[in-house]
Amino acid sequence: MVEASNTNYNVIIIGSGPIGLACGIEATKLNLSYLILDKGTLVNSIYNYPYGMTFFSTSEKLEIGDVPFISHQPKPNRDEALEYYRRVAQSWKLNIKLYEEVKEVKDAPRSSYQLISNKNTYTCQYIVLATGFYDIPHMLDIPGEELPKVLHYYKEAHPYYAQKLAIIGSANSAVDAALECFRKGAEVTMLIRSDKIGDNVKYWVKPDIENRIKEGSIKAYYHVEIQEITEKSIRFSSEGKSIEIENDFVLALTGYEPNFKWLEEMGIKHSSDEKCIPMHDPATMETNRPGIFLAGVICGGMETNKWFIENSRIHAEKLMKEIGRRKEKS
């Protein structure tokens, strides 16, 4: 990893997730001067995944930069992914500054931009936003959500041993948490908005959770609307009935969303429907703001299950090819 010494670049990439790293690799290939900035650690979203989490994708689908990803099983786990992306950053000697948050983006002379971080000020001709969506959880907007017992991220099962745990959600994160916490001694209740476990749940996990619910090891309520969380209980309706159950902890694993406010502050528009897809050209990944590009899952707006590492790696090639073409013309 190379330490940046100057403050003026062809392109600044915000976000050091796998797609941000892929953008840095493509910039390296094109001899563009670049800097990758991240407010957290390297591949910060993966770092914040639950301990021991297994990816849906196989190792080769997570590879970037022609660096082989070797894992013990076909589907790697969180620790193997962290090790792999550290190796990618080192192999390509990527120019990265971590724990540096971009606070403001301003227009600068000669069609360039000024980026003000918590540590420095930079200028560049182009910006790539590869920030993902994992930092901001969907809020329930109900009384009691601010209580310390309510968490929107899950790391491990141990804290919930011998506790009455309510898990809100039915996607992969909720199902994984429910099964692990049940097996580590928690009394688990799943609160599900729809009428079933999510269709996109990992195929090798879905029968497990459905069987645990069927046998009663994990309690599940469907067509749920949460009404209130208190220190000792949670109130909700299920299939038209009002229910209150005793409760020690709530895992509200209801999904996450991009930082739309930050995008709007940069002048980036998004669709007016519930998808809120940021405006961009799929051919070049450029937004309605000239010189500002998108890469990775942020391109899907609220459709957070549309883009993944394996199908958005192409974004890095598209946008850097366009930036390289413009640099040659200038």
Can you characterise this structure?
It is a single chain. The protein is an alpha/beta fold and 330 residues long. The protein has 2 domains: 8-136 and 256-329, FAD/NAD(P)-binding domain (3-Layer(bba) Sandwich), CATH 3.50.50.60; 139-252, FAD/NAD(P)-binding domain (3-Layer(bba) Sandwich). It has 7 helices and 17 strands. The strands form 4 sheets. Strands 1, 2, 3, 4, 5, 6 and 17 form a 7-stranded mixed sheet that branches. Helix 1 (18-29) packs parallel to helix 7 (309-329). The longest helix has 21 residues, at 309-329. 38% of the residues are buried.
Structural class: alpha/beta
- β-strand amount: 15-25%
Helical content, roughly?
10-25%
Q: Report the order of strands and helices.
A: EHEHHEEEEEEEHEHEEEEEEHEH
CATH homologous superfamily identity of the largest domain: FAD/NAD(P)-binding domain
CATH-defined topology of the largest domain: FAD/NAD(P)-binding domain
- Radius of gyration, CA atoms, in whole angstroms: 22 Å
Please tell me the CATH architecture of the largest domain by its name.
3-Layer(bba) Sandwich
CATH class of the largest domain: Alpha Beta
Please indicate the count of domains: 2
What is the makeup of the main sheet? 7 strands, mixed
Number of helices: 7
Indicate the mean pLDDT.
Answer: 93
Low-confidence stretches: none
Count of β-strands: 17
